[in-house]
């Protein structure tokens, strides 16, 4: 290491140089080189002489008073500022919670609402019981679905209701069995589908005789749903919910 | 009808908020340091702006900013360097607006020798004049390192430039000061000689 490099590394004073620029070689050179030691000594003397010569200006009394006043002002305002900031933080947290409470459930419910609206739309679409199989024989309807649905389809017998036929339909990518009935001139659709992945959050849930029932009125139609062995049964009709509920509890629904 | 139970979710992470006592302690420290460093801050501001009135305003503003930033202060910080950083940023903003802070480098002139004796012959006014003739960024480095005794690294942090730039600026500024004060040595010697 030469003098120039040593001076560059250790500038302005070797004792003020920090570890990042310290170099063992530069220090070793400094120990051996009287010229470099003198260079750094002269730099230190220069720095000290400059400091002595320039001295420091004394801050005017007005500035001193102004800074004292500023310190006092902040000292006095601290509890209030702290309290305000804390209150704001809590208010923001509460607002965030409220927003989350409002938004999150509706985001979760939205697909469910859309699904059951489509169920009602399908009921409306096939009001004339446009069946793929026209039959009033439950056994024939059930066997017709045998090779068409991945789950066991049941065509229950409802008192005072006539079985008209059945068809397959697709509800938001869920394959469903649709069975048509008519009761006192009112068409009733019974949808059956795999309950896996179906979000029921758009419906009201009630428990009757320890059996959970989901129900709602959508677009003028009553909808009653229940789960049976992994299959979701949905009854849709223009009859009232109270007229549909007995069907859901018909003996033929019990397995 | 079934009962709907909503479990209380863990919604928000704990947001760190400085306690009142912590803030008060920091404020006391900064207040004390401001009082202690007032002359140094004012002197630096005056050397850089050349105006006592402007220096006064700048230091007052620095005090206000420092006290307002108590909440965001890290306790392991070098508070004196932090205070000077606020001052230098305030000065730089003002001088840049007036186009008086230009990041230019002094050309390094060859020196015959560097003698501190030149300073002892020059008057304080001469030294001040020589200092004020330096470009503002170089003057800031001299003031921080030679007058306020900050290290190269502290000065680099205060001015927001690499340590290498600080070293280089200091060497060039000192060299320029020596060149400017060269005449005083001979003249004073001459006067002394004739007396």
Secondary-structure map:
The complex is a heterodimer of chains A (255) and B (195).
Chain A: H1 3-10, H2 24-32, H3 34-54, H4 61-125, E1 133-134, H5 138-145, E2 162-171, E3 174-183, E4 186-194, E5 204-208, E6 211-218, E7 221-228, E8 231-237, H6 241-248
Antiparallel strand pairs in A: 1-2, 2-3, 3-4, 4-8, 5-6, 6-7, 7-8
Chain B: H1 20-49, H2 52-68, H3 79-97, H4 117-121, H5 124-132, H6 136-147, H7 152-159, H8 163-194
Helix pairs in contact in B: 1-2, 1-3, 2-3, 3-7, 5-8, 6-8, 7-8
General description of the model:
The complex is a heterodimer of chains A (255) and B (195). Chain A has 255 residues and is an alpha+beta fold. Helices cover 47% and strands 23% of the residues of chain A. In chain A, strand 2 and strand 3 (174-183) form a beta hairpin. The N and C termini of chain A lie far apart (96 Å). The mean pLDDT of chain A is 85. Chain B is mainly α and 195 residues long. Helix content of chain B is 68%, strand content 0%. At the A-B interface, helix 3, helix 4 and strand 5 of A face helix 1, helix 2, helix 5, helix 6 and helix 8 of B.
* SS strand fraction of chain B: under 5%
Structural class of chain B: mainly alpha
**Global geometry of chain B:** elongated
Order of secondary-structure elements of chain B: HHHHHHHH
Q: Care to count the β-strands of chain A?
A: 8
**End-to-end distance of chain A:** 96 Å
Biggest β-sheet description of chain B: none
Number of strands of chain B: 0
> What is the percent of helical residues of chain B?
55-70%
Mean pLDDT over all positions of chain A: 85
Largest interface here, residues on each chain? A-B, 49 and 58 residues
Helix/sheet category of chain A: alpha+beta
What is the terminal separation of chain B in angstroms?
115 Å
Shape of chain A: elongated
Work out the helicity level of chain A: 40-55%
Order of helices and strands of chain A: HHHHEHEEEEEEEH
Count of DSSP H/I helices of chain B? 8
State Rg of chain A: 43 Å
* Oligomer description: heterodimer
């Amino acid at each position: 290491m030469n003098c120039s490099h040593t001076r560059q590394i250790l500038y302005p004073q070797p004792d003020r140089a920090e570890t990042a620029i310290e170099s063992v070689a530069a220090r070793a050179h400094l120990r051996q080189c009287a010229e470099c030691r003198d260079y750094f000594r002269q730099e230190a003397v220069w720095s000290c002489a400059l400091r002595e010569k320039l001295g420091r200006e004394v801050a005017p009394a007005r500035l001193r008073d102004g800074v004292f006043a500023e310190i006092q002002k902040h000292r006095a305002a601290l509890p209030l500022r702290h309290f305000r900031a804390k209150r704001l933080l809590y208010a923001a947290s509460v607002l965030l919670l409220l927003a989350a409470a409002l938004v999150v459930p509706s985001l979760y419910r939205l697909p469910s609402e859309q699904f059951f609206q489509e169920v009602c739309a399908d009921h409306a679409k096939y009001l004339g019981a446009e069946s793929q199989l026209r039959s009033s024989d439950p056994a024939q309807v059930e066997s017709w679905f045998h090779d068409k649905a991945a789950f066991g389809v049941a065509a229950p017998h409802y008192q005072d209701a006539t079985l008209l036929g059945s068809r397959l339909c697709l509800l938001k990518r869920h394959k469903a069995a649709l069975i048509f009935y008519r009761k006192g001139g009112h068409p009733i659709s019974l949808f059956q589908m795999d309950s896996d992945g179906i979000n029921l959050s758009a419906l009201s849930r009630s428990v009757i005789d320890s059996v959970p029932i989901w129900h709602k009125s959508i677009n003028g139609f009553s909808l009653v749903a229940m789960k049976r062995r992994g299959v979701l049964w949905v009854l849709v009709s223009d009859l009232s919910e109270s007229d549909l509920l007995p069907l859901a509890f018909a003996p033929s629904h019990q397995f | 009808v079934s009962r709907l139970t909503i479990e209380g979710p863990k919604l928000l992470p704990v947001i760190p908020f400085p306690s009142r006592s912590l803030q008060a302690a920091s404020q006391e420290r900064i207040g004390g340091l401001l009082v202690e460093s007032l002359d140094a801050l004012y002197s630096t501001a005056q050397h850089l702006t050349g105006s006592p009135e402007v220096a006064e305003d700048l230091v007052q503003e620095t005090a206000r900013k420092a006290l307002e930033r108590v909440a965001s202060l890290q306790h392991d910080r070098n508070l004196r360097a932090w205070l000077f950083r606020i001052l230098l940023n305030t000065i730089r903003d003002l001088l840049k607006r007036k186009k008086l802070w230009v990041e230019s480098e002094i050309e390094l002139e060859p020196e015959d020798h560097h003698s501190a004796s030149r300073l002892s012959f020059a008057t304080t006014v001469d030294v001040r004049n020589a200092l004020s003739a330096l470009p503002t960024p170089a003057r800031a480095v001299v003031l921080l390192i030679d007058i306020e005794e900050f290290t190269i690294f502290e000065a680099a942090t205060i001015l927001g430039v690499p340590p290498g730039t600080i070293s280089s600026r200091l060497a060039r500024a000192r060299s320029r000061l020596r060149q400017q004060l060269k005449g005083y040595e001979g003249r004073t010697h001459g006067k002394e000689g004739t007396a």
